[in-house]
Design goal:
Structural class: mainly beta
Number of helices: 4
Helix content: under 10%
Radius of gyration: 25 Å
Number of strands: 33
Length: 480
């Protein structure tokens, strides 16, 4: 993922301009560096950069672990798994493999011929993971009739996570979780004939066969989030279905026919290649309990427990602003103010429902995901309620905390976690960079991000307003 920089607390004038522009240059050059920011950080637990001259069999099986065929028309042979010039290449050919005589495959409950040859690899028995960030950088073949995929599986089916599937247009890829219908699963367990799914397809003007692109899924006990070229484009808070996933192994394969149809453009002199630059998996580092003050980035006030025992926004300096954040399983947390925790009362899932403070009972309406935000100074997060999938935000009057939609105004949804003894930011101690990027003189927080191919800086003023400013170089040119 792209690495964003943090703006210094005390930069101004020409020096500020030099520091900021240098940082923008660094940002533009650093791509595909890290998974999304989180509270505890990440451990890299699997990596293959395909730098050798053959497949690393300590990490991969050279075909499907169950055998050379699946639900498409290709026999997947080890000799069609090629590692050279820093990439993995799965080669699809218009020829029947000698060992495919008499073999057929099944797609949509119909027998289909196995008259092509291709490649597949998986990590079954080598590497499996439960929860984390799974990412790969791939270049799809251009030919119709090819169906490249990057996915995960466990013993039995379903469930299955599809991170990347391209069965048709090269300007579209599919992503899904396939699972057993919960009404059946809860009483019987997994069943292929009670399969259901959520997900969809991402359509844009990016040709996945014209170059390499990254595809990823971020997975915890309640949520699957999907990424394309380092940007999250879909997220699903579905704990009931996601709990069916146990440790997953990884599959990369080039299918031919099947879901891709029988109009196959592979010819004897034009084989298809599905290329992988790398595959990496991260897991979140174990989190520790922490004592913090939770400050609204918009108002500069903190979540506090008032004299009536209610959760409101108030002075960060008081002892009633001290909270304890405790990690639970997966990536969920509980937030205590004394002996009570933050929750959405009565398990409400509607936007606008107020957060309150109640005794801990372990319900999902008391479990909160903390999503660390890149581009901010300090430990800045969005807080996602596990039960509703909504984010906690400050109300526009700066008095209460409510839950709101993902696409609500994000400035009200960002919170800085201040260490118990950390200095509380004030207007005078925050960033002053008016001359550097034509911005307000004093701001409570700032973020750097891309939009429509341009770099922007986002500022929140003391009065709660928000301004969006383009970034420029020394000659006044917009930075891309």
């Amino acid at each position: 993922m792209k690495k964003f920089f943090s703006l210094s607390r005390a930069v101004s004038g020409v020096v500020a301009k030099q520091i900021i522009i240098a940082s923008f240059a660094f940002l533009s050059a650093n791509v595909f560096a890290d998974p999304p920011a989180n509270i505890s950080g990440w451990n890299l637990v699997f990596e293959d950069n395909f730098d050798g001259t053959s497949l690393d069999k300590k990490k991969w099986n050279p075909t499907y672990n169950w055998g050379p065929t699946h639900n498409h028309r290709a026999y997947c042979a080890e000799e069609n798994v090629i590692v050279s010039d820093g990439t993995l290449k799965l080669k699809g050919e218009k020829k029947k493999h000698p060992k495919a005589n008499g073999k057929t495959a099944k797609f949509n409950n119909k027998e289909i011929p196995v008259d092509y040859t291709s490649g597949a690899i998986d990590t079954k028995g080598k590497f499996e993971v439960k929860y984390g960030y799974i990412e790969g950088r791939f270049k799809a073949p251009s030919q119709k009739g090819t169906w490249p995929a990057f996915w995960t599986l466990q013993d039995g089916w379903p469930p299955e996570i599809d991170i990347l599937e391209i069965p048709a247009s090269r300007k579209q890829h599919h992503y899904y979780l396939h699972y057993t219908d919960p009404s059946w699963y809860n009483s019987h367990g997994s069943a292929w004939d009670h399969e259901a799914s959520f997900g969809g397809h991402k359509d844009d003007n990016v040709d996945r066969s014209a170059g390499f692109h990254t595809y990823a899924v971020e997975w915890d006990e309640s949520t699957l989030s999907f990424y394309f070229d380092d940007k999250k484009f879909a997220s699903y808070n579905r704990p009931t279905e996601i709990k069916q996933l146990s440790a997953q192994y990884i599959i990369v394969n080039l299918a031919i026919g099947g879901w891709a149809g029988d109009d196959i453009e592979i010819t004897a002199d034009k084989p298809a290649y599905f290329e992988a630059d790398w595959v990496r998996v991260w897991q979140a580092k174990p989190a520790k309990s922490d004592t913090v003050r939770i400050m609204s980035m918009n108002f500069g006030t903190c979540m506090v427990k008032n004299s009536e025992g209610k959760l409101v926004l108030g002075d960060c300096k008081g002892d009633n602003a001290i909270a304890t954040i405790t990690p639970l399983s997966g990536s969920a947390y509980r937030i205590n103010f004394g002996d009570v925790v933050v929750e959405i009362p009565n398990e409400k899932t509607d936007a606008g429902a107020s957060a309150g403070l109640y005794k801990w009972n372990g319900g999902s309406h008391q479990k909160i995901g903390l999503e660390k935000q890149s581009g901010y100074e300090g430990n800045v997060v969005r807080m996602k309620m596990q039960n509703s999938g909504h984010y906690l935000r400050a109300t526009t009057d700066g008095e209460r905390v409510v839950q709101s939609w993902d696409d609500d105004w994000p400035w009200y949804q960002v919170w800085r976690l201040l260490g118990k003894d950390e200095k509380i930011p004030t207007k005078d101690s925050t960033v002053s960079i008016r001359k550097a990027v034509r911005a307000p003189a004093n701001v409570y927080g700032s973020a750097v991000y891309r939009k429509n191919g341009m770099l922007y800086v986002n500022f929140g003023d003391e009065d709660g307003s928000k301004r969006e400013v383009k970034a420029y170089d020394f000659k006044g040119r917009s930075l891309k």
